[in-house]
Amino acid sequence: MRHGKKFNHLGRTASHRAALLSNMASSLILHKRIETTVAKAKELRKYVEPLITKSKTDSTNNRRVVFAYLQNKDSVKELFGIVSEKVASRPGGYTRIIKLGNRLGDNAEICFIELVDFNETMLAASAEKAGKTRRSRRSGAKKEGVDAAAPVAEAPSAEVVEEVAAAEAPAAEAVEEVAAAEEPAAEESTEEPKEEKGEDA
Predict the structure, then answer these.
(1) Among candidates 110, 94, 91, which has minimal Cα distance to 29?
(2) Are 41 and 115 in contact (CB under 8 A)?
(3) What confidence score (pLDDT) does residue 115 get?
(4) What's the pLDDT tens digit per position in 170-188?
(5) CA–CA distance from 181 to each of 44, 173, 174 (Å)?
(6) 51 vs 69, 85, 139, 182, CA distance in Å?
(7) Where is the composition biased (Basic and acidic residues) (predicted)?
(8) pTM of the full predicted structure?
(9) Phi/psi zone of residue 92: left (φ > 0), alpha (ψ -120 to 50 degrees), beta?
């Protein structure tokens, strides 16, 4: 029974699984992006991220520990040289999985797994988004600033409304005069037809 055994065995013996993950980790470090199945990528992420964290501290002991996992001098050199410099300021989350759909032969889910700091297009896009900030309504400091500015903005608007009302008053009076002048004309026009009817009768 598999009680408490939560990780994916990937259908391999322990030695075969360890060799697979070691080779995939070396390939990921050297090439920065590899294509594989989603199940393998998820297991690789758990395998390689602790090694990348170890590479941040360049000591002989850490190099030996990482080499015990990778068994590849080139990938250890790349990891402690170029990769560790790029990820120095990142507190974890060094890899990204991008799903690509299903494979034609066996319908397995395929994906890219890549090192986050080496995808230039994604980095450029995130830098653009960082430039555009969204105002939040939750922070208390911003609310106080808005409340303090509000009375200053309201006072001129009230004056402007009064001025507009004063300017519109003569126009309203002129409209009333025109309406008053039109009322008798309307009454006359209504009375004339009645007289005509009376004459015909």
Answers:
(1) 94
(2) no
(3) 94
(4) 655 655 665 666 665 555 5
(5) 91, 12, 11
(6) 8, 14, 39, 93
(7) 191-201
(8) 0.62
(9) left
pLDDT of residue 189: 53
Length of the chain: 201
Three-state DSSP class for residue 137 = coil
Instruction: Please give the full DSSP string across 30-82, using - where no structure is assigned.
Output: HHSEEEEEHHHHHHHHHHHHHHHHHHTS--HHHHHHHHHHH--HHHHHHIIII
CA distance 137 to 145: 12
- CA–CA separation, 69 and 76 (whole Å): 10
CB atoms within 10 A of CB 43: 20
Ranges of residues in the chain with a pLDDT under 70 are: 132-134, 139-201
How many whole angstroms separate alpha carbon 9 and alpha carbon 38?
Answer: 14
Separation of alpha carbons 181 and 109, rounded Å:
84
